[in-house]
Amino acid sequence: MQSCPVCGGNAPVSALLPAGDIAARLKDELGAAVPESMTIADYAMRQCSACGLVFADPMLAGDASYYRWVTAFPHYHAEDRWEWGVVRRVLAERGKTRLLELGCGEGRFLASLASFADVEAEGIDLSEGDVAAALARGVKARCLSLQDAILEPARFDVIFMSHVLEHVEDPLGIVAGCKRLLTPGGEIVFSVPYSPTSREYRELDIMNLPPHHLTRWNMNSLKRLAEIAGLQLGYEMRKPKSLLKRTLRHTVESVTGKPTRTGTLRTLAILASHPGVFSDALKLHRSREKVGGRRAADEILVRLKTT
Questions:
Q1: Per-residue confidence at 259, pLDDT binned at 50, 70, 90?
Q2: Core vs surface per residue 230-254: b (16+ CB within 10 A) or e
Q3: In a domain, 76, yes or no
Q4: 205-229 pLDDT, tens per residue?
């Protein structure tokens, strides 16, 4: 049996994902067929019986051709994210800081730090195209792997990853590598989807599955990651969407069979004709795990601090 990549626990299969199904669902999601030149593997999803991490088997990330394809779709790269604001607040509180963004993409977050005179920031990414775009924004960025960065003498007070960890084949190894780059008192800050996301109550969200995302995180798995890495866990979570909004979206998507925006009259018609679907969705979302005294949102910002 494939063991958990975080804690090594036993992890039985929870779902099977044939390559053909993945390709079909990517087409439904993105509106374009997967290129014939691109290979997608058959996967299984496993859930660790010890820490609860859900992960892909094999832990095989999409290759360069996959990411060139998927990142070319409009709106793939966010113009801003809620966690960027939290990180900017952290940097303002820390004062003089040297920051490394791992997986900096096109440099949007780094560019947002232009007014932070006390922050010396740079980014690394494996995509030459994204690094070129980041440089065009006037930020410091290099095409470099974490493994190569570890070999360099530079050390950082903060290492930031915005929705990176769920994409990588060795999340524990990435965190351990980042730890080696920290100064005393430094921290690793990263955001990941918090599973199950609200959409996953209806279906297995293809954009939160391999080859796109290899891991799905919850509080127990994040705690074990911190413990095994020898770091202190802190976190922040945005205010979740209201129970009513989540339930309405769930109901509409269950009836229509796909993510969609509907007007008020159409939504009311769906509720009137499918009251049982709404009732079942409401029960699911009312029972959602609470974090910090309120229902969990779909994303979490994690802070792993050196002890």
A1: low
A2: ebebebbbbebbeeeebbbbbbbbb
A3: no
A4: 788 899 999 999 999 999 999 999 9
